[in-house]
Amino acid sequence: MAIFTIHQHPWAFSFGVIGNLISLMVYLAPLSTFYRVYKKKSTEGFQSVPYVVALFSAMLWIYYAFLKSEAYLLITINSFGCFIETIYLVMYMVYAPRKAKLLTAKLLLLLNLGLFSLIFLLTFLLAEGPNRVRILGWVCVAFSACVFAAPLSIMRIVIRTKSVEFMPFYLSFFLTLSAIVWFSYGLFMKDFYIMLPNILGFIFGVLQMALYVAYKNTAKNDVNVEEDNKQPEHIIIDVVKITTITCNEIHPIDSVIQVMEDESIICKDEKAHEQTDQNEISMRSPK
User: Which keywords does this chain's UniProt record carry (predicted)?
Assistant: First the structure.
């Protein structure tokens, strides 16, 4: 079957392999964050939401891939996504404070167990054949649209602060590249449900890079002003990719910004300058 797939869809296979490699890097992006957590034995205010969402996205796309034929490359990357996100969440549960652990447990029960089980039962019992794939495909598209809306909060902060310090250009670039690759995969596979969410991923990625270009010099000029006001801004960003499956897979982009507003943006961690991972999650995957 695998050989048949390669011969029948040579370009789809090529783009799928490239997409797997790019999504793999996106999934591994938070490694530095969790190494820091391990060294300090503390989650330092990082949130678990992007990792929970990324895990849910990978699960959803794996289910979709099993219903489709010749979708092995979606299964491979999202299986890895489930594996790595589970490791991240286990580490988070070990080092997070009690309140954060309880919140994470509730999210896992409601989203990854409750909602996923509900989607599985409804599509399995109320639909069959092409209709089941169609319904699940739209569920993936809807969820991916919500995931890709996450960068809007980042873009809002960039415009307000005129600073791109917490929106790395190369991260936005590779997430955009990931969206292009997975869109191409969906195009050659003639899979509308993979194509559509990656169009959103591409649009948001281009907008982020445009903002970076527009504000990269402005940010430098505003440094002295910020120091005079003595109102440091520390934004913790966790990016997850959804890469893949492409509901992750759709790319896996997964991002979380911890911002508190009280007539000014106040940040809790002065070392938040270190890049961390999603879009999460992107939530992560050709989603």
Answer: Cell membrane, Membrane, Repeat, Sugar transport, Transmembrane, Transmembrane helix, Transport
Structural element, H or E, at residue 261:
strand 260-261
Query: Residue 165 has what DSSP assignment?
Result: T
CB 30 within 8 A of CB 256: no
Q: Helix crossing, 116-126 with 49-67: angle to 10°?
A: 20
Q: Tell me which of 265 and 138 has the higher pLDDT.
A: 138
Residues 119-154 have pLDDT tens digits of 999 998 888 888 899 999 999 988 887 777 666 767
- CA nearest to 99, candidates 150, 43, 155, 142: 43
Q: In angstroms, rounded to a whole number, what is the distance separating the alpha carbons of residues 243 and 249?
A: 4
Q: Where are the domains of the chain?
A: 7-216
Provide the 10 A C-beta neighbour count for residue 7.
Answer: 8
Which residue carries 């809002």 as its tokens? 156
Q: Which of 166, 146, 169 is nearest to 158 (CA)?
A: 166
pLDDT at position 109: 96
Q: Which residue is listed with tokens 């993936």?
A: 140
Q: What is the pLDDT of residue 150?
A: 65
pLDDT at 78: 93
Q: Does residue 145 contact residue 152 with C-beta atoms inside 8 Å?
A: no
Average confidence score pLDDT of the chain: 75
Quick count: other Cβ atoms within 10 Å of Cβ 204? 24
DSSP labels, 65-112: HHHSSS-HHHHHHHHHHHHHHHHHHHHHHHHS-HHHHHHHHHHIIIII
